[in-house]
Amino acid sequence: MVFPFKASPYYVDELIDWDAEDLRQDPFYRLVFPTLDMLDDSHRTMLEEAHAEGDPKKLIQTVEQIRADLNPHPAGQKLLNAPKEDTLTGVQHKYSETVLVFPAAGQTCHAYCTYCFRWAQFIGDDELRFAQKEANSLFEYLERHEEVSDILMTGGDPMVMKTRSLAQYLEPFTNPSFLPHIKNIRIGTRSLSFWPQRFTTDSDSDEVIELLRRVREEGGRHVAIMAHLGHVREISTPKAKQAINRLQKEAFATIRSQSPVMRGINDDAEVWAEKWRKEVNMGIIPYYMFMARDTGAQAFFDVPMAKAHQIYSDALRNCSGLIRTVRGPSMSCTPGKVEITGVEDIMGQKAFILRFLQCRDEGWIGRPFFAKYDPNAVWFDDLEPLDGMQLPWNEDGLPRQVPKTIY
């Protein structure tokens, strides 16, 4: 298989609508079951021809070639984000205040999204994989970088780890004197959708809740569960509700929701509005709507910027002010996080209005910029500058020098 496949029993039993008139169009079936339609015509032909030859070695080589063509590490994750230190095999440091860590034991998930932008973590190629094998070198790095306030544990999914493994990274933060400049511990997870039993009935569920509580209450750190939630169905089952309740009321963790907008899964304003309303009612903070990244099956799932912004705006118009914590649609791309904030007429030219929410050069944050309107644009490198202007990145996607401030 070109793309990895995995589905948890919970997901299969409780989220997929097996009685749907067209099962392949059910958003939750589409989310985990890869199909040949996810490949473009040329890659599909390559795969079919290699399969027809009946040579397993040739088939493996063809799969590897297709994977290499699908940009397995978008936005400079390997070349630009990873510190050049031999012991930091699973660390990224793109923005000054936030360090990402990929614990080796957490580099799988309870199930795999067909659109996952980190699909290269799960295909068994160690050269493509981020995996931090121990915590001490991470702590040494953080000690040297006092500008860092946030750690984001990611993957994969750190919540596939047993609590004793997770504790290697989190237990030290129960001591408020340990790396006191680290204020916020974020954990990126899909477990509320794929295996909410992690927080309720797993053999060490009580231990993980207690560990998170201690980081919050004894260590004085903010504990944020960065939950990948793309549809209201994910937070509507009794198991998911129980898991959310324990995280909030026993671990004292804050849950924030984020998801990409994906064709055939949630590319509808009412789907987003319903999700956000339900989240706020449950005490979950809507955080991000993302665009499909330029990797894997992007062409199968992508939604053009203009449509994504319309979905975002139409959804917000039907929601209360409490929901307007959410940002987007946002592209996590080479120069930074670029948000599409509007479409307007600028001096006679129809244009996208954009801004950086994060940037490799912090000087760009808070400065709006403009690009020609293109109804088919899906990614930052599809954009063209307005006449007489420049986009804030060069041909390599890296930020240009920040202009002088106008204040």
Brief rundown of the structure:
The chain is built from 13 helices and 11 strands.
Describe the overall structure.
The chain has 407 residues and is α/β, with parallel strands linked by helices. Helices cover 29% and strands 17% of the residues. The protein contains 13 helices and 11 strands. It has helices at 9-14, 27-32, 41-53, 56-69, 77-81, 136-144, 163-170, 191-194, 205-217, 238-249, 269-281, 298-301, 305-317, and strands at 91-95, 98-101, 150-153, 184-189, 222-228, 254-260, 285-290, 327-332, 336-346, 349-359, 369-372. Strands 1-2-3-4-5-6-7-8-9-10-11 form an 11-stranded mixed sheet. It is globular and about 60 Å long. The model has no long low-confidence stretch (mean pLDDT 92).
List the helices and strands and how they pair.
Blueprint: H1 9-14, H2 27-32, H3 41-53, H4 56-69, H5 77-81, E1 91-95, E2 98-101, H6 136-144, E3 150-153, H7 163-170, E4 184-189, H8 191-194, H9 205-217, E5 222-228, H10 238-249, E6 254-260, H11 269-281, E7 285-290, H12 298-301, H13 305-317, E8 327-332, E9 336-346, E10 349-359, E11 369-372
Parallel strand pairs: 2-3, 3-4, 4-5, 5-6, 6-7, 7-8
Antiparallel strand pairs: 1-2, 8-9, 9-10, 10-11
Helix pairs in contact: 3-4, 7-9, 11-13
- Which strand order does the major sheet show? 1-2-3-4-5-6-7-8-9-10-11
The dominant shape is: globular
Percent of residues in beta strands: 15-25%
* Helical proportion, percent range: 25-40%
Features:
407 residues, alpha/beta, eleven-stranded mixed sheet, 13 helices, 11 strands, globular
